[in-house]
Specification:
2 copies of one chain form a homodimer. The first copy, chain A, has 460 residues and is an alpha+beta fold. Chain A is built from 15 helices and 18 strands.
């Protein structure tokens, strides 16, 4: 066994690793849009073939939605680790803002060195390949993986993971390991790696308000006829009070105050809120009054509107009073907030605001609680040390604003803790046009996983 | 001269008149969408050719937008009348709700007899053809028109009439007549014709709010980053108070109270607000508290949202915090409300509501004041009597909720009064899928114009 030889192998094989990533990035596996169903299946098949080539017993397992990739490998001794990533990606609209086609990946010069530009480069194809490349190098150098490893890749992470919990329940025995490794998070900054120990949950709700039973002329009916856009605007406007707090009754049940210890640790990170907001054209925090920006993102719940539509949206003007208006609304959850209770409370609040002539329908898009990791598991400190060995600065335990519901489900369904380690950067433009992944993230990411596997198995 | 012979001619030529209308309806002259520019030009050319065939000196006159059709005919004696209609039509979305293609007109059985189904059947191609058919029959029977007539057909009425005022100004002498006849309004009910004497004005404003300079991940930025959809919703929700009044400062300057005489006359019409709202799936008036439905539509100003969009609007869910959100907002104006002053006040109100990190841009879509006709011109009473002779019930002077800005411009630019007579019905679905025009409206409409021409020229 030789960690150094594995690291050397990763360095020397970087170009072929990049070729494999580029091939995966070229597949438009947009899970939320049914038009890309075959592409999602293709991405799964490519990964199955790649894992089989490393020696994994790999298969694409059907679900009512997109397939799950499951692969088993490694010797029976040592811990049994489960690695999770997702091969599906976000939609690419607005396509006009991309500097190149989103599924024709290229390597470019970025402000901090080379970058890989494509949808999914960072979220999550580039990230998941860091682990697979570490496994490949380990097998190439040492003839076998350092321990028993199950790789589990989902294809519905960007569309609410509808098949995930049923799949975990149906395959509980096969997927229950000693610890899960999840690669879908970021570095703290370009030099500081991180183990994410707090993740917000996510509750998604699409609401559609119907007023008149047809589109009307706003001259002939404007005034007496209920306008569903106006009703929807009133609903949205009422979701926050003047201090930025969410007004859904019971919303803050289960929201813990940050401990002074964690608050001190976060303050020591040197986070610059002005630079963070300035990077996206903003100058002042818009959220809850009296909370720091890091708190707002890592440890406070939110309610945001992700999309809205109704009436005439084309060029020019149409004096229509529309029959329907709809919005996609999401809640980020922390602590022990109960997504089901909040969904019910939200729906009741909306119903109570409706005029008698309006109806509302709700469409659910996921409901996952927050995850707070048990960092007293020694693997967390071992991994933190391994990361610190690879990167210029010492690794930190941090929170994350995005939701990675799978960590919660691993705990509730499989009774398995998760260790979240990722190499994304804040400027990766995930979910936006022109997504990218730094070549440094990819390269040091593989090396980081080799070090983490060594640290938690004791095989140096 | 013989009015009776003209009416008989209109009856016997009904089928060929319908064929001419169907050909015009088959042209998709959607003025607001640049994709249909050639179709608008074609509709104008078809009308020019038809008017020339009746003996008019007709031409399609270019503008920066769609052409104006101008045609002169008739002897020099008697009043010089100008007839106005528009050959452009509304967009057809959502296309999926049409029971047949909107530009493949057909004649069907409706609840009250035959109907002509197509986009523009009622608004305004069917209506404008009632006048042209009356002219055709008059010429066929009497060898000439009963007086000097200028026909003026616009192609931008459904897109804010951007070329109208410049065109009126440039051709002021040619277009200034003794009285304008406008056919773009409705019957009071199926049996009661009407002369519309009050028209609401229209101010259209498209507003776009920008927050962050790019689309963001709502997990990574939700909380501290300003969300333009939420800001827009707050703006829209603040445009009305709890009693349904518009909150834009100064909005009610120039809004007159309805006279007791007019109020009594309207109450005598037997209008049934429950049936009016019930026909579109509504049960209670949503507008200003303490106002009747007829007041809300005919004599009170409104603010409505005609369209809204922002963020992810496709299938599924995307956890995006969007950079931009926009809405199309319109104000219906009455009395002497000043559209320019209201536009400025509205824009200032919106700017004052914005957080520091958001910007707003405005796009203007028309700004026309209300029109209140001088009904002491004897032609109004002559026309009212002529209409009463044609229809089962006596004609009424009424208001109209929709805006017909041209009437205001005829007054302000050409110093010409307008008499608004039309034959549309409330269930014509104008601006909606499945627009139709009753065959009775078309047939009695032509006969009505023949009678009105006879009454105002004294040629029986």
């Amino acid at each position: 066994m030789s960690l150094d030889a594995v690291l050397t192998k990763l360095d020397s094989d970087l170009d072929t690793a990049l070729e494999r990533l580029m091939a995966l990035l070229a597949i438009p596996s947009i899970s939320t849009d049914p038009a890309y169903k075959a592409d999602c299946a293709k991405a799964a098949e490519v990964l199955v073939a790649d894992l089989a080539s490393i020696g994994f017993d790999a298969s694409a397992r059907p679900t009512p939605g997109h397939p799950m990739v499951v692969a088993h490998g490694g010797p029976e001794d040592g811990p049994h680790l489960l690695f999770y990533g997702h091969y599906d990606v976000q939609p690419v609209d607005p396509l006009s803002l991309w500097t190149q086609p989103p599924f024709e990946p290229i390597i470019e010069d970025g402000p901090d060195g080379k970058i890989i530009r494509a949808r999914g480069a960072s979220d999550d194809k580039g990230q998941l390949m860091t682990f697979i490349e570490a496994c490949r190098a380990w097998v190439a150098v040492n003839g076998a993986l350092p321990c028993r490893i199950t790789i589990f890749l989902e294809g519905e992470e960007e569309s609410g993971s509808p098949s995930l919990v049923p799949f975990l329940k149906e395959n509980k025995e096969e997927l229950s390991c000693d610890l899960a490794l999840i690669c879908d998070t970021g570095l703290f900054d370009a030099e500081t790696p991180a183990v994410t120990t707090m993740l917000r949950g996510l509750l998604g709700q699409e609401i559609t308000i119907t007023g008149p039973d047809r589109d009307l002329h706003s001259g002939g009916y404007g005034g007496p006829a209920a306008n569903p856009i106006r009703v929807l605007a009133r609903v949205i406007a009422s979701l926050h009070d003047e201090t930025g707090r969410v007004t859904v009754p019971g919303f803050y049940d289960g929201v813990p105050e940050l401990s002074q210890e964690m608050r001190d640790q976060w303050q020591g990170l040197g986070f610059d809120p002005e630079a963070f907001l300035g990077a996206v054209g903003l100058s002042e925090p818009a959220g809850e009054r009296g909370r720091s920006v890091l708190e707002m993102i890592w440890s406070r719940p939110t309610c945001e509107v992700n999309g809205i539509s109704g009436g005439y949206e084309g060029d020019g003007f149409k004096t229509v009073l529309p029959s329907k208006a709809s919005a996609k609304i999401s809640f980020r959850l922390v602590g022990t907030q109960d997504p089901i209770a909040i969904r019910e409370s939200f729906q009741e609040m909306v119903r109570e605001m409706l005029p008698r002539d309006c109806e509302v329908s709700f469409h659910d898009h996921g409901a996952s609680p927050a995850s707070v990791m048990a960092t007293d598991n020694p693997a967390f400190e071992q991994a933190r040390q391994a990361l610190s060995d690879e990167w210029p600065k010492e690794a930190a335990f941090i929170g994350a604003g995005g939701s990675i519901p799978v960590a919660g489900y691993f705990k509730t369904v499989l009774d398995m803790d998760s260790m979240l380690i990722g190499f994304g950067k804040d400027d990766d433009l995930i979910h936006s046009p022109n997504e990218k992944y730094d070549l440094t993230s990819f390269h040091r990411g593989m090396r980081s996983w080799a070090r983490v596997l060594s640290a938690v198995t004791g095989k140096e």
